């Protein structure tokens, strides 16, 4: 199990605390420093069952600069979103846990963290 975190994020710290309390075996990825490649983002999206716009933090300053709210949300626009996430990892929603069964969850709640642990 791997968790993508920004240590400054309270939701990330909460997820780590819960994983620790449950005795989970996991690896931390500080995705702002160890930036995911486009292929890794595609893989996580497949595991999440989501599209890139579903995990984009549209309120970030860089999102506003890029104008992502105006971008298409269709198959033809997918690579543009993935490229933006790989070039501006701050846009990636967090934390993301990749579960041992090959799935993933955006673990913003204790319930989502427990869901990942149960997989």
Overall description:
InterPro entries: Arsenate_reductase (IPR006659), Arsenate_reductase-like (IPR006660), Thioredoxin-like_sf (IPR036249). Belongs to the ArsC family. Keywords: Oxidoreductase. With 119 residues, the protein is an alpha+beta fold. The chain folds into two domains: 1-31 and 94-119, no CATH class; 36-92, no CATH class. Helix content is 39%, strand content 12%. Helix 1 links the parallel strand 1 (2-5) and strand 2. The chain starts with a strand and ends with a helix. The mean pLDDT is 96.
Condensed summary:
The protein is of the alpha+beta class and 119 residues long. It is 39% helix and 12% strand.
- The low-pLDDT segments are none
Helicity range: 25-40%
Shape: globular
Number of strands: 4
**Terminus-to-terminus distance:** 10 Å
Per DSSP, the total helix count is 5
Helix and strand run: EHEHHHEEH
Q: Tell me the β content.
A: 5-15%
Give Rg in angstroms.
14 Å
Sheet/helix structural class = alpha+beta
Count structural domains. 2
Strand order of the largest sheet: 2-1-3-4
Largest sheet: 4 strands, mixed
Mean pLDDT: 96
Keywords: Oxidoreductase
Organism: Streptomyces lutosisoli
Family: Belongs to the ArsC family.
Protein name: Arsenate reductase family protein
